[in-house]
Amino acid sequence: MDNSSTKPLEPQLLKQVFVHNLNRIYFGKRYLDKSLAHLIKLASFTALEQAIQEFWDDVKKHIARMEEVYKLINETPSDKNCNPIKSIVKDEFCLDEKQSMSILSDMDLIMYLQLLEHINITSCRMLMMVAKLLKYDDARQLLTECFDESIDNDQLFMLISKEYLTEN
Q: What domains are there in the chain, each with its CATH number?
């Protein structure tokens, strides 16, 4: 078999790719939804607490949108495969370890949440591309909304990082 070029996938295989990756991000988000209250308690800075709450609100919207995507494509979520995204969420960068300065804990929180947002951004980008190929226009719109919110959250966490790192 020649591996120098790829052939376009048939629609049925494309749908399998779509559902497989949707499952990964969906179950990662569902697991994250259960752990965000704890992360808010770890933040020592009010603006960071508020940003994590906003992020959490968006996670809930993403879950609801992905559930709508499943309905649109007539699929049921399945967590039967190993889920590396859920593993990253569970890892939590050892955030419960006590740091000598609160800024270290808060910066770890920010880095962790931005990592999760970057995974979501990348996943949504790929899912939107496959949705376009499959002509899942409504699903693509829902994923675009998730993508846009993730971009906004990433920028919000960058702004908060700047507050810690710049002179007043």
A: 11-165 (1.20.1260.10)
